[in-house]
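tool_call predict_complex ligand=BJW
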Amino acid sequence: MKRAARILAGAERVLVSSGAGMSKESGIPTFRDAMEGLWANFDPQALATEAGFRTNPRRVWSWYAWRRERVGDARPNPGHVALAEMESLIPGLVVVTQNVDGLHREAGSTDVVELHGNIRRVKCLDHGHAYDGPLPPFAEGEEQDPPPCLVCGSPLRPDVVWFGEMLPADAVERAWNLAERCHALLLIGTSGTVWPAAELPLVARRHGGLVIEINPEPSELTHAADVFLEGPAGVVLPELRDAVRAALG
Ligand code: BJW
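tool_result ok
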């Protein structure tokens, strides 16, 4: 913890790269947990691909409506709050997240890059027309068809990045620039199995950045970490914030 705090206190530019474990203590399940993970209970090919949506739009739309409802009820946890507070200790701190829940911003982080979109937004399938009108109310256990786009009539879909889809170009460009220039990268709660996001700590390392990882278990990226802080983000991050404050005097 002390070594991590010294690295962060001495870093002008810090890139935070977060994954689903960041929001676990907000009550949002991760994807690859063997028991409770979304992909342990649902088929990613059927639910998180364009082909899956075209095959069964009603099923995919309803699954995302259920998840949107859960995200709407969730609140930032002490880890999100600690990260937002760290901005006042490290002004050059930017968050790049794979999460689609919007909880970093809700906690007060001001500079957040979303690599995999945001589940609270929807857009149309065929042309990506944004839609910000009302959505049908969620009803537990009831499936709904996706509403049509008001511009072109194609079905609405969640504005998230499915497997086989390109990540938003502006988010990728910014994230890779930040990784190349950061002095330290704080990797939180990701299994490191999904590309290209998994490359960020490797990019940072190649350019001389130090990597600090927070995770209750080793991940696919732990081999690239200079410091591994074992534990849940909601516990470790508040301790880290206090340790950085102490290191800065
Ligand atoms: C805690 C904790 C606590 C628990 N505190 N931590 C190169 C090589 C191989 C494959 C590919 C490649 N390039 C592209 C691919 C294909 C594919 C891919 O990566 N596949 C792999 C699975 C093999 N990638 C793509 O398709 C991407 N697109 C792309 O590359 O376009 C170019 C292209 C197109 C066509 C062909 C080739 C290239 C798009 C990826 C989109 C991912 N989408 C999802 C769904 C988003 C929407 C939704 O929410 O439904 O994004 S999948 C899912 O995984 C979600 C997540 O953002 C992502 C990452 O998961 P994450 O965050 O790591 O979660 P988990 O569950 O895996 O891990 C949780 C971690 O938390 C664990 O380590 C726990 O221990 C830890 N933890 N409690 C802290 N309290």
